[in-house]
Backbone:
């Protein structure tokens, strides 16, 4: 395989799909050497097959707002790869959603799910609908209209969507209610992130952030460091950032920054239970601003127009959106003494930022490893649903911690360089790729 040749062909087929092309290039550059050691992969054209989704479902979503006016959005489901299990991946409701974004997320999800060791393929979906400023009734009507088009393409052994940006417990509830009405069966395994009273798993809301901090903790221990007493900057203030802030604080770190589209909160004294709870209130308000945090808690300061990366910290955790941490941000963090960065959001750092971190030799790990705890716990939710039982929070958390330790171990196995530096990007990509590639090879040319 020649990466540039594969990418040139993809760019010709999919012009302008920048996020998708970026994600594919990162993986292919990481696996090129290993791939070329396996002529059976090349003979079966594994890469050429793996980089294209199995299918893409696109549909119109028409709904009526509170003023009685008809609104139209676009809905998508990208079923990327089912070599190791049913399609699994979140739904994202955000005005910026497009096909390139969802293809990148589905591609990443394929390897992330492989890393969890659970039998789940990769998928992603969503809509350009934005919950921002919408009433609960409008969100319900949109979710029902969305599911009306999607329901025949999903199922517990076919495709299991979950939440993502703009899709939390409320949205999953509305989506599942409509699915149940249409399918006329109470199949709790068809969506994950459900309410605890109707098939959800304990720890699932916190899982992405919790799992990320478990992974970071393993990174630090491998490097002979401890997270206790360290300062942490987190972007975002939604579910993922909330989980990360909760677990970081629990482990003894001090979360000194959270951020939103409007600016950054500098929180020098760290988080308290009241502050962490208020993050959920902010997210549920649908206003998409973080400034009210400083109004509620006078020991913090709001700085408009700034990112979390402007605050001096030991550990930087992007938790919001793809490509949110740029090369300039990376240089600012490094100049301020940051020595660890981990993508809790999917592809949270630009290639330039990753290059800066790796050139500086700091600890850095990619989203497909760091944030795999969310989908891992979704997989555990599927298992509980299939067995018609519910585990305690302690059981789920113990399994989550074990899965994250296994992912870290796989990254170290495939990513350790001759000089001892662990290239977590390469490690995660190679470990996930090898599992999916062997499954595809053994299942024939399909």
Residues:
């Amino acid at each position: 395989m020649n990466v540039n040749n594969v990418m040139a062909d993809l760019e010709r087929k999919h012009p302008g799909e920048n996020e998708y092309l970026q994600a594919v290039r990162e993986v292919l550059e990481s696996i090129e050497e290993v791939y070329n050691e396996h002529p059976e992969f090349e003979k079966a054209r594994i890469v050429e097959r793996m980089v294209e989704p199995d299918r893409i479902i696109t549909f119109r979503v028409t709904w009526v707002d509170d003023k009685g006016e008809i609104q139209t959005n676009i809905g998508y489901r990208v079923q990327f790869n089912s070599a190791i299990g049913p399609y699994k991946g979140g739904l994202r409701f955000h005005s910026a959603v497009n096909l390139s974004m969802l293809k990148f997320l589905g591609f990443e999800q394929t390897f992330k799910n492989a890393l969890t060791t659970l039998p789940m393929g990769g998928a992603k979906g969503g809509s350009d609908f934005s919950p921002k400023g919408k009433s609960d009734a409008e969100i319900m009507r949109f979710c029902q209209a969305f599911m009306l088009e999607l329901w025949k393409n999903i199922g517990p052994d076919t495709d299991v969507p979950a939440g993502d940006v703009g899709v939390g417990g409320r949205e999953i509830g509305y989506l599942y209610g409509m699915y149940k009405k249409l399918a006329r069966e109470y199949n709790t395994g068809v969506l994950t992130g459900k309410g605890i009273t109707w098939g959800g798993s304990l720890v699932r809301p916190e899982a992405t952030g919790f799992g990320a901090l478990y992974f970071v903790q393993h990174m630090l221990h491998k490097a002979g460091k401890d997270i206790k007493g360290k300062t942490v900057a987190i972007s975002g203030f939604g579910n993922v950032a909330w989980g990360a802030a909760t677990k970081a604080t629990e482990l003894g770190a001090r979360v000194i920054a959270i951020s939103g589209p409007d600016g950054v909160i500098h929180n020098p004294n760290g988080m308290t239970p009241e502050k962490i709870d208020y993050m959920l209130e902010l997210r549920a308000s649908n206003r998409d601003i973080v400034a009210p945090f400083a109004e509620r808690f006078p020991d913090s300061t709001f700085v408009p127009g700034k990112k979390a990366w402007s605050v001096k910290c030991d550990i930087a955790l992007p938790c919001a959106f793809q490509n949110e941490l740029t090369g300039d941000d990376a240089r600012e963090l490094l100049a301020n003494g940051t020595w660890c960065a981990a993508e809790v959001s999917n592809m949270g750092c630009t290639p330039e930022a990753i290059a800066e971190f790796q050139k500086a030799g700091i600890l850095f790990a990619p989203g497909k490893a760091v944030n795999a705890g969310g989908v891992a716990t979704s997989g555990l939710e599927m298992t509980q649903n299939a067995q018609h039982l519910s585990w305690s929070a302690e059981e789920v958390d113990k399994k989550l911690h074990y899965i994250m330790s296994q992912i870290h171990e796989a990254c170290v196995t495939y990513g350790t360089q001759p000089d001892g530096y662990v290239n977590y990007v390469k490690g995660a990509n190679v470990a996930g790729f090898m599992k999916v590639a062997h499954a595809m090879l053994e299942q024939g040319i399909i």
